[in-house]
Write a structure and sequence with these properties.
Elements lengths: L7 H7 L7 H5 L4 H4 L5 H14 L3 H22 L9 E8 L2 E3 L3 H9 L3 E2 L12 E5 L2 H12 L2 H4 L2 H4 L3 E4 L12 H12 L13 E3 L4
Parallel strand pairs: 1-3, 1-4, 4-5
Antiparallel strand pairs: 1-2, 5-6
Helix pairs in contact: 4-5, 5-10
Length: 211
């Protein structure tokens, strides 16, 4: 399974720190460890370490508090849902040809958002309930209908019930970092539209209506 590196740029932006400070982080003894952060706790630790290094502790603490509060709200609402009742999610990085995306960060945030990620090594598309496509919208809209018409996809619950979604914002569901709460909120409102309404369908994702 691939492990996407931490987005230092997103953290520097959230801390309102100039990107010119990046060399200071690269020289820090914990630099390579920072890049391996994938879970909320390790992302918080990375933000705290970056705040220490760049003397931006108050902003780092505020950012961590905000992210933690938002993620905890989602986790609390979903904590009593049994795994067998959670939607199974398959992530795609391309649809022509189909490429199933297996990534540590996506698996972690999908589980926090109440989904059961299907990894590439054991995927059975017939079990898929929601398909999240990660590709610029013009590309997806051009080739997705033909892909969904293929027998192995046409019979999935996702296609039958219209649960096909496109993440079209280039900053989301790509890397762990300061947008981790946003990414979890996006998945939560896709997977549980009756429980969560964050309004991110206006800027980050869209439901594909062409099937």
């Amino acid at each position: 399974m691939r492990s996407t590196l931490l987005s230092l740029h997103s953290i520097l932006t959230a801390l309102d720190v100039d990107a010119a400070c990046l060399p200071l982080l690269e020289q820090a003894p914990t630099y390579h460890e920072l890049l391996q952060a994938h879970t909320p706790d390790t992302v918080y630790a990375a933000i705290r370490s970056i705040g220490d290094t760049l003397h931006a502790n108050p902003k780092a603490d505020q950012l961590i508090e905000n992210l933690e509060e938002r993620i905890n709200i989602i986790a609390h609402k979903l904590k009593f849902i049994a795994d067998e009742s959670k939607p199974r999610v398959v992530f795609l990085t391309d649809v022509s040809p189909v490429k199933i995306h297996s990534d540590t960060y996506l698996e972690i945030i999908a589980r926090i958002a109440g989904g059961i990620p299907i990894n590439a090594s054991a995927v059975d598309t017939a079990d898929a309930v929601v398909v999240v496509c990660e590709k610029p919208t013009p590309h997806v809209l051009a080739v997705l209908p033909a892909m969904l018409a293929l027998p192995e996809w046409a019979q999935t619950a996702a296609v039958k019930h219209g649960n096909v979604y496109i993440i079209h914002h280039p900053d989301h569901l790509r890397q762990p970092g300061a947008l981790i709460a946003d990414d979890i909120e996006i998945l939560a409102e896709i997977l549980y539209p009756k429980q969560f309404i964050f309004g991110r369908d206006e800027d980050a994702w869209m439901k594909f209506e062409g099937q």
